[in-house]
Amino acid sequence: MNTVNLTINGKLVQAEKGSTIIEVALANGIKIPHLCYEKGLSIAGTCRVCMVKIKDRPGMEAACTTEVVEGMKVITSDEEIDEARKLIVELILSEHKHDCLVCESNGQCELQDLAYDLGIDRILFPVSKSVEPTEDSSQVILKDPNKCILCGRCVRSCAEITVQRVLDFAARGSGTFLISGLDQPLVDTDCVSCGACIQTCPTGALTEKLARFQGRSWEFRKVQTVCPYCGVGCQIELNIKNDKIVKVYGVEEGPDNKGHLCVKGRFGFDYVHHKDRLTTPLIKHNGKFEEASWDEALNLVATKFKELKDKYGSDALAGLSSAKCTNEENYLFQKFIRICFGTNNVDHCARLCHASTVAGLTRAFGSGAMTNSIREFERADVILVTGSNTTETHPVIGNYFKHLAAYNGTKLMVVDPRAIELTEYAEIWLRQKSGTDVAWINGLMNIIINEGLYNKEFVENRTENFDEFRKVVSKYTPGKVEKITGIPEEKLIAAARMYGKADRGSIVFAMGITQHTTGTDNVLSLANLAMLCGNVGREGTGVNPLRGQNNVQGACDLGALPNVYPGYQKVSEAKVRENFETAWGVKLPPKDGLTVVEIMDAASKGEIKGFYIMGENPMLSDPNLNHVREGLENLDFLVVQDIFLTETAELADVVLPGVSFAEKNGTFTNTCRRIQLLHKAIPPIGKSREDWKIIMEIGKRMGYPMAYHSPREIMDEIASLTPIYGGVHFDRLGEQGLQWPCPSREHPGTPYLHKDKFTRGKGLFTPVDYIPPAELPDEEYPFLLSTGRVLYHFHTGSLSRRSKPLDGIAPEGFLEISPQDAEKLRIKNNGWVRVSSRRGKLKVKVKITHRVDKGVVFMTFHFAESAVNLLTSDALDPVAKIPEYKVSAVKIERI
Amino acid sequence: MKLRNKEKDVIALLSKAQRENKHNYITEDKLKLIAQEAGLSYGEVYGVVTFYSLFSLKPRGEYIIRVCDSGPCHLMGLKSIFEVLEKELKIKVGETTNDGMFTLEEVSCLGICNEAPVMMINEKVCGNLTPQKIREILRELRKKK
């Protein structure tokens, strides 16, 4: 039997076997005071505050460490218990600094509450501890040892949630104290500033440094919403005073983050109030921006676009939508472009990150999104992570992987050219040469087939084209693969056996796979691998692309793409088009539009004349920046709608001030297809306006009035036209959101795809051969340059670089180079070098590290001062048109 | 590899490191290496080292004198033993002589009450101490050098 019956304070309750008294009590609304216990962390049993009496057992027992058994009778409070608790708390208070008067935790302090609840009206024991200095070396965390009650919750969250293991206890007995690292200042340790320790600290021992004296718990207005950074979709609670965000907490009930956040989500919100925020429309006169009224700006935008359309035709106009904006705004934007511009030239930055995923997975499975859900990873036996530096780019998922490897017995297998942090937690790390992914994946499958480790039943019943595929794979013997990829034969064999033998294998990937001229091939190969082992359509399996932007999944879903309408319905299909024509009451263009890089090309050739960019910064994000500048400068009319004057906005003729995530309602769709509600927390800054309202205004002035009163109404229209969002309605989203496909109002949403049948019917095996990258190092440009991100910044830094703590921790760009190459070039750590490619050059500081292999260098694209995309190649994947950011050839000179 | 290495006994590794160090302590570099070998965090290893008073993170003398600080030793005249040691060595408890030869420590109980007052010098027990006897022991050790 798996349930037990017991009574707590005479009340009969049922509980799952193996649960503890405190869990059962709390779940049944019975309060048991506690300090060291916290849901989600391991049990310490040290504070002894949760002592309870159990009938027929002597003395008292800690409710957090005692498991329930059948027939147990628990008493949580009587005179004796209360006295014991009181004594414990009095002892704790004798070692505590009582400065509640100015303490940041006043009003949300568990110790304060407990003392109050127990009626402790005087300090029984004199405070015996000497006062230690506070530790403020971190940009974000303030440590006051005088308020630490040694409950160990921070130690456990650091070890178990972030798995960074920075905090611990030193010494013993009454001398015990909290340390970081080897009793060093936090800034000198491996601390990643996630702030999990602050969130769990019951007192004021660990607090937000920048929130000091900015407001107290009872003064805050609390608004629950979704983090604006990456695609994990962490739910956050904004704490607001006087319309200013002061603190952020992770929402414990958030379905994908469970209360956890990374440094960006918890501390990177201050850009919202940055002095650089655009507060009024700007119009450029003689090369200089001048403030304008909304009417002036909107009229000018509409008139100019109409003029250009009349003069050069619809296809001379184009728009870039935004993966930072809401679903409703993306829907409106593509609708506006298709109707008012009359073209399908609409795209967004998904082109630069996961276009090949959508192309590859749609072909193989019929749906281009993450097949499974984030919290299913704990069901997997093996997680294969390739081309994803997860702990920096999707930190909450990355930390979860570390947790699973350390505590859940999940085997991690990492395939990455760089020695990323996850390699330290991996059972197997394969270091392939950049751009050789098809070869190692084929090699893996070759071994799996030869050793009979593949799932014959799945292949037979659920897939097609296996024989053609098998022919190609049979050429990729381990020896041949070693020559191409540099992965030793025996390691490849071990990896093949590990994935091949797993009951549930989950594949996770990101830009390391997609940003290649063979991006689509790489994705198809991963799909082949998953199908071969029957790892699709079950919990804890699948092919899982981690999406980069908070709403890049939504921007794709809602048709901000040149070839599909919302819900991936093809523009080229007459029936689909007719459906949208009827709904929108206009004639729609039948021809697929241009993609991001193609638009830039067309602009530099003079084929695109007018360009409307909402919330994107191609002047830093796109490859071959000199060429992008050429294109943008060649335009007749450029409109940029953003919250800051970005590098792109500087080139605009008209700049329209939109608003940040905190100033709007709507929905974001996260990487595992979860549609979540945003809640407007503060009014728009200055005269800025919600983006969906701006689009409506331009539409009206271009002769297509759209009269929505709220994003809710827009979502209703989306649901009526987009089968995968068919059952989505604001009233249904609540705290848990909904995962598409959700075709009807009764449908509960879909945690994992392709359950009994692939979206396309049968899974399609595609034979794929290895093709080398477009530009490899040679004598003139001897280094292979790869690009990516760091933990502390996001995308082109328009937001994160305007966050004081984030830019404070990581203020400048760098070039990672191996010690061997650094020695050869006689460069020192932190020395300056000039890096040049066939397309451009820049100066940057050097970081010498074993993270990169000989002959390989790495840079991030966050920093305008060292804009790596001056160097990158704009060679494209022929199918998905994604550029090859991960491989270009450069030379390096010491300066 | 940052995963805990269950086969590694961290206390044995620390003891060995301290024994092999001629100043009887564990260096920071060694501490970090042991943490990596055992798959523990720096904080965890630091916690272990500071928990046990037999480990030291500071350089100590060639001879570590541990004087028993328990009740029976006090009754048998411990106070004068400390006085003599501090005077002879010109250091206080917890300190090391300038020549790096002696470190003076106190220890809770050595469990040899029948020989009280008692102390240990490295692994060797010296009981039934008198000021005279201590001076002789120190003289012998200094002569050896």
What do you see in this structure?
The complex is a heterodimer of chains A (895) and B (145). With 895 residues, chain A is an alpha/beta fold. Helices cover 29% and strands 18% of the residues of chain A. In chain A, the strands form ten sheets. A seven-stranded mixed β-sheet of chain A has the order 14-13-27-26-25-15-16. In chain A, helix 8 links the parallel strand 15 (317-320) and strand 16. In chain A, helix 16 crosses helix 17. The model of chain A has no long low-confidence stretch (mean pLDDT 95). Chain B is of the alpha+beta class. Helix content of chain B is 43%, strand content 12%. In chain B, strand 3 and strand 4 form a beta hairpin. In chain B, helix 2 (28-38) packs across helix 3 (42-51). The mean pLDDT of chain B is 90. Chain A binds chain B through residues 155, 159, 165-172, 179-183, 189, 402, 405-406, 424-425, and chain B through 1-4, 28, 31-32, 40-44, 46-47, 50-51.
Would you kindly provide a brief summary of this structure?
The complex is a heterodimer of chains A (895) and B (145). Chain A is of the alpha/beta class and 895 residues long. Chain A is built from 29 helices and 37 strands.
Q: Estimate the helix proportion of chain B, in percent.
A: 40-55%
Q: What portion of residues of chain A belong to β-strands?
A: 15-25%
- Unreliable stretches of chain B: none
> Which series of helices and strands of chain B comes N to C?
HHHEHHEEEH
Helix content of chain A: 25-40%
Shape of chain A: globular
Tell me the fraction of residues in β-strands of chain B, as a range.
Answer: 5-15%
What's the total count of β strands of chain A? 37
Q: What's the mean pLDDT score of chain A?
A: 95
